[in-house]
Design brief:
alpha+beta, 2 domains, three-stranded antiparallel sheet, 10 strands, disordered N terminus
Length: 386
C-alpha cells in the first residue's frame, strides 16, 4: 500500500507533511480484499471515520453476458447464464429455460418441475451459507465461515452427483432438466437436510446470538420500508423491512403453489434483520426440499427438443421471474425466429442492492461498517456488470 494519500482537491500529501484540516480523503476497499463481496470495489470519500460518499466499481470479473448471448446458439447460452451469479447460479438457468419455453410454448414434465424446485432450493441454501461466512468475516468471527462454507460443501456434493458440476451446473434445459435423479439420491438429500437443520442451532450459538454481532449489526445499515420500496429492494432485503413479497407466493412458477412454506420477515430492516431473514429462509427451504422429495411423481424429465445446433425458437418475447436468494430475478427475452436470441435482458437484484442502495446507505456510515452493510445486502458482483 502506498504511503501517499489523496484529498478531494487531487493533491498528493507525503507522510509527515502538514495536511489541510477538515478535508475528505479517498479510501479504496477491494477488488481483492477480505472485506469485499467478490471481485468488486468501493471508493469511499471519508472525513475522520465517517463515510461522506461511496462509489461502487464493478467489472473485475465476468462481464457482458447479455451481449454474449446474442452471438451464441440458444443451447450454448445455458453454459453462460449460470456465471452471472456464482453463489446462486440456478435461478439464471431456470429463468433462461422458462423464457424459451414461454416463447416456444414448450411444456415441462411435472417430474422435471419438481426437480427444478429441488435444485433452486438447494442453491438457495448453499448461497445463504456462503453469505453467513462472508458477513461473519467482516466482524472478525472466522470460525463461522469455516463452519458454514464447509457445510455448504455438503450441498455442493449433491450438485456434483446430480449434474457433474459443483458450482456451475448447466442442468436446466428448455423442456425440462438434463438428467433424472440418481439412484439413492433422495435419501442422500434427506441426510444433508437433516445435517444442515441440526447445525442451525449451533450457528445461533456461534453467530446469530453472538454479542459482538449484536453490538455491530443491530441498528446498523437501516433501510426504512418506504425507501426499500422506492429504491427497488427485493428478496430478503425487502422482507427484512417487513414487506412480505416473495415471487414464489405472489407469482408462483414450477410447482411452488403445491408446496407449503412461510415467508420470513423482520421489522427493523438493519444488517441483523437481513441476516436473520436469511437464517429463517434456510429452515423454510429445508421444509420445501422435504416436500419435493415426498411428492415428486414418476415420469420423464425432459420434453425432447429439435437438434440444438439448428433449433429455431419461434419469434416472440417473454418475461419470466423467480425468487432467488438475492431477491427477485427476471429475464426478458426476444426471439426473431432465428437460432440465437435476438435480445436477452437480465433484471437481477444486484444492481439495485449492490450499487444504488449500497451507495446511499454507506453515506454517513462508519468505515468499519462498510463491509458489513455490503454483505448484509448480499449482491452478486458479476450480475452488476452483466
Amino acid at each position: 500500500m502506498s504511503d501517499i494519500v489523496t484529498i478531494n482537491d487531487g493533491k498528493a500529501i507525503m507522510p509527515g507533511a502538514n495536511a489541510p484540516e477538515n478535508r475528505e480523503y479517498n479510501m479504496f476497499i477491494g477488488p481483492n480484499h477480505p472485506g469485499i463481496e467478490g471481485n468488486f470495489a468501493l471508493k469511499l470519500s471519508i472525513e475522520g471515520d465517517i463515510i461522506q460518499k461511496a462509489k461502487t466499481e464493478a467489472g473485475f470479473l465476468h462481464r457482458g453476458f447479455e451481449k454474449l448471448m446474442e452471438e451464441r446458439l440458444f443451447i450454448q447460452n445455458i453454459a453462460i447464464v449460470c456465471r452471472i451469479c456464482v453463489p446462486d447460479p440456478d435461478p439464471n438457468e431456470e429463468n433462461y429455460a422458462r423464457a424459451i419455453e414461454a416463447i416456444g410454448g414448450i411444456e415441462v414434465p411435472r417430474r422435471a418441475q419438481f426437480i427444478r424446485v429441488l435444485v433452486l432450493e438447494l442453491s438457495r441454501i448453499a448461497s445463504h451459507l456462503f453469505t453467513f461466512g462472508g458477513h461473519a468475516g467482516t466482524i472478525g468471527l472466522y470460525t463461522m465461515p469455516n463452519w458454514s462454507i464447509s457445510d455448504r460443501d455438503r450441498v455442493l456434493d449433491l450438485f456434483e452427483e446430480l449434474t457433474g458440476g459443483r458450482v456451475y451446473h448447466i442442468f436446466n434445459m428448455p423442456g425440462g432438466v438434463r438428467r433424472d435423479l440418481p439412484d439413492g439420491f433422495k435419501n442422500r438429500v434427506r441426510d444433508v437436510m437433516d445435517y444442515v437443520e441440526s447445525r442451525l442451532s449451533e450457528y445461533d450459538d456461534l453467530f446469530f446470538n453472538n454479542k459482538i454481532l449484536l453490538n455491530r449489526a443491530v441498528g446498523t445499515g437501516i433501510l426504512p420500508v418506504d425507501k426499500a420500496i422506492a429504491w427497488g429492494a427485493t428478496g430478503p432485503n425487502l422482507r427484512a423491512a417487513g414487506f412480505a413479497h416473495d415471487v414464489r407466493k405472489d407469482d408462483p412458477y414450477e410447482v411452488y403453489e403445491e408446496l407449503e412454506f412461510d415467508v420470513p420477515t423482520a421489522a427493523d430492516s438493519d444488517a441483523y434483520s437481513r441476516l436473520i431473514v436469511r437464517r429463517r429462509e434456510i429452515a423454510e427451504s429445508i421444509r420445501i426440499v422435504r416436500q419435493v422429495l415426498d411428492k415428486i411423481p414418476e415420469g420423464p424429465v425432459w420434453n425432447k427438443q429439435p437438434n440444438p445446433l439448428k433449433w429455431r425458437v419461434p419469434a416472440g418475447d417473454a418475461y419470466v421471474r423467480t425468487e432467488s436468494s438475492k431477491g427477485e430475478y427476471a429475464y426478458y427475452m426476444v426471439s426473431d425466429g432465428g437460432v440465437r436470441p435476438y435480445r436477452v435482458h437480465v433484471r437481477g437484484a444486484s444492481v439495485t442492492h449492490g450499487v444504488h442502495i449500497l451507495e446511499n446507505m454507506l453515506a454517513g456510515a462508519r468505515i468499519e461498517d462498510a463491509s458489513q452493510i455490503m454483505f448484509s445486502l448480499d449482491a452478486c458482483p458479476p450480475e452488476v456488470d452483466r
